[in-house]
């Protein structure tokens, strides 16, 4: 029993993160290619509390994290108060907005509502350490990457479920006591 560590399967961040292997992909927002309508669709089609912002779908390089409620408030307010903000307006999270054809609707700049340094771990991080980080830093969510590409997300609730599962499987485990 002393060698328990050797036998026990170590759960890694990749085993707990969403999406799971056969789930639909992570719902992300691209930093400067989506329109107001695209982002409103992401908001109505999902219930997630937040969305990672990436450079592009191809690169999956993480730029930041934006909360659902901040998106809703900002878009609603811009549609009411900001001239020219319509469904086809681009939303940009970059520092400089890319040039647009003069006929295009003005873009909506939302960099100010984005968390520019969301907490990130790699997919190989042991859950033991992830739990510790969540506790010590009081995280609500944490993003998971592999070789610099965004792979998934772990929320506080995901961590709590994982802890409950571990306690069920192994009531003697002192790891989480
Ligand atoms: P909670 O975990 O508190 O319910 P959410 O509603 O944000 O918080 O997330 C619900 C589930 O969906 C969680 O398991 C989480 O890992 C996952 N999730 C959160 N955000 C996203 C996203 N943008 N794309 C895909 N899955 C997500």
What's the topology here?
Layout: H1 4-7, H2 13-16, E1 29-30, H3 36-45, E2 50-54, E3 62-67, H4 68-81, E4 91-92, E5 108-109, E6 114-115, E7 120-122, H5 127-137, E8 141-146, E9 149-155, H6 156-169
Parallel strand pairs: 1-2, 4-5, 7-8
Antiparallel strand pairs: 2-3, 3-6, 8-9
Helix pairs in contact: 3-4
Adenosine-5'-diphosphate binds next to strand 9 and helix 6.
Could you describe the 3D structure shown?
With 177 residues, this protein is α/β, with parallel strands linked by helices. The chain contains 6 helices and 9 strands, in the order H-H-E-H-E-E-H-E-E-E-E-H-E-E-H. The protein has a 4-stranded mixed β-sheet. Strand 7, helix 5 and strand 8 form a beta-alpha-beta unit. Helix 3 packs across helix 4. The radius of gyration is 19 Å and the shape is elongated. Bound molecules: adenosine-5'-diphosphate. Adenosine-5'-diphosphate binds next to strand 9 and helix 6. The site of adenosine-5'-diphosphate has 12 residues, from strand 9 and helix 6.
């Amino acid at each position: 029993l002393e060698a328990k560590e050797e036998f026990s399967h170590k759960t890694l961040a990749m085993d707990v993160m969403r999406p799971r292997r056969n789930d639909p992909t992570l719902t992300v927002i691209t930093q400067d290619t989506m329109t107001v309508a695209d982002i409103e669709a992401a908001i109505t089609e999902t219930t997630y509390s937040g969305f990672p912002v990436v450079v592009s779908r191809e690169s999956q390089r993480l730029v930041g994290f934006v909360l659902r409620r901040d998106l809703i408030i900002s878009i609603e307010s811009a549609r009411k108060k900001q001239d020219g903000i319509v469904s086809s307006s681009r939303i940009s999270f970059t520092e400089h907005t890319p040039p647009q054809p003069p006929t295009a609707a003005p873009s909506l700049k939302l960099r100010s509502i984005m968390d520019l340094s969301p907490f990130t771990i790699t997919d190989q991080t042991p859950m033991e350490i992830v739990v510790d980080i969540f506790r010590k830093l009081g995280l609500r969510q944490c993003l998971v990457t592999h070789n610099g590409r965004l792979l998934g997300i772990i929320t506080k609730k995901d961590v709590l479920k994982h802890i409950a599962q571990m306690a069920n499987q192994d009531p003697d485990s002192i790891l989480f006591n």
